[in-house]
Amino acid sequence: MATAGTPQDSIQARIDELAEIKESARQGPDPAATERQHSKGKLTAQERIALLLDKGSFNEVEPLRRHRASGFGLEDKKPYSDGVVTGWGTVHGRTVFVYAHDFRIFGGALGEAHAQKIHKIMDLAEAAGAPLVSLNDGAGARIQEGVTALAGYGGIFQRNTRSSGVIPQISVMLGPCAGGAAYSPALTDFVFMVRETSQMFITGPDVVKAVTGEEISQNGLGGADVHSATSGVSHFAYDTEEECIEDVRYLLSLLPANNRELSPVERSGDPVDRINDALLDLVPSGAGQAYDIRKVIEEVVDDGDYFEVHPAWATNIVCAFARLDGHVVGIVANQPASMAGVLDINASEKGARFVQFCDAFNIPLITLVDVPGFLPGVDQEHNGIIRRGAKLLYAYCNATVPRISLVLRKAYGGAYIVMDSRSIGADLALAWPTNEIAVMGAEGAANVIFRREINAAEDPEAVRRQRIEEYKNELMHPYYAAERGLIDDVIDPRETRSVLIRSLAMLRAKHADLPSRKHGNAPQ
Question: Which residues form the CoA carboxyltransferase C-terminal domain (predicted)?
Answer without folding.
Answer: 271-506
